[in-house]
């Protein structure tokens, strides 16, 4: 008897992302240094209805990012400033590009590992 082959985590994640139409979630984003030390933790909420999304950070710094599929707007309440850029330019290597449907970004920028049946880890590939 032969055990069934495990699917490639990258392919499985891409299949799930392709099937994703809408998403709403709270998140914690951790940034680590080269020695593995925690540099910063951010908390926020994301709402996605492809290709549109709203990414809101609550702490440590408030920021709202909104995209309509063509343009990306970043609002910084502390600076009372809005930046507007074409979405293709803004998301070329950003993690959010993975959620908005960029398979090229997933393949070129991230190592994908399965942590649990429904949980994946994405780590930036070394330059």
Strand content: over 45%
Overall 3D form: globular
Distance between the termini: 42 Å
State the order of secondary-structure elements, H for helix, E for strand. HEEEEEEHHHEE
CATH architecture: Clam
- Strand arrangement within the widest β-sheet reads 1-2-3-4-5-6
Q: Please, how many helices?
A: 4
Report the structural category.
alpha+beta
- Main β sheet profile: 6 strands, antiparallel
Q: What percent of the residues sit in helical stretches (DSSP H or I)? A: 10-25%
CATH 4th-level superfamily: Lipoprotein localisation LolA/LolB/LppX
Structural domain tally = 1
CATH topology: outer membrane lipoprotein receptor (LolB), chain A
Total beta strand runs: 8
Q: Can you tell me the residue ranges where pLDDT is under 50 for at least 5 consecutive residues?
A: 1-5
Radius of gyration: 16 Å
What's the rounded overall pLDDT mean? 84
Return the CATH class. Answer: Mainly Beta
């Amino acid at each position: 008897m032969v055990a069934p082959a495990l699917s490639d985590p990258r392919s499985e994640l891409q299949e799930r992302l392709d099937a994703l139409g809408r998403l709403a979630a709270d998140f914690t984003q951790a940034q680590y240094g080269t020695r593995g030390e925690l540099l910063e933790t951010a908390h926020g909420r994301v709402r996605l209805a492809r290709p549109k999304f709203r990414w809101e950070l609550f702490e440590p710094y408030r920021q709202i990012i909104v995209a309509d599929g063509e343009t990306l707007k970043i609002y910084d309440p502390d600076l009372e400033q809005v930046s507007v850029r074409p979405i293709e330019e803004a998301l070329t290597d950003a993690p959010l590009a993975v959620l908005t449907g960029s398979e090229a970004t997933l393949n070129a920028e991230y190592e994908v590992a399965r942590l649990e049946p429904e949980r994946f880890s994405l780590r930036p590939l070394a330059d």
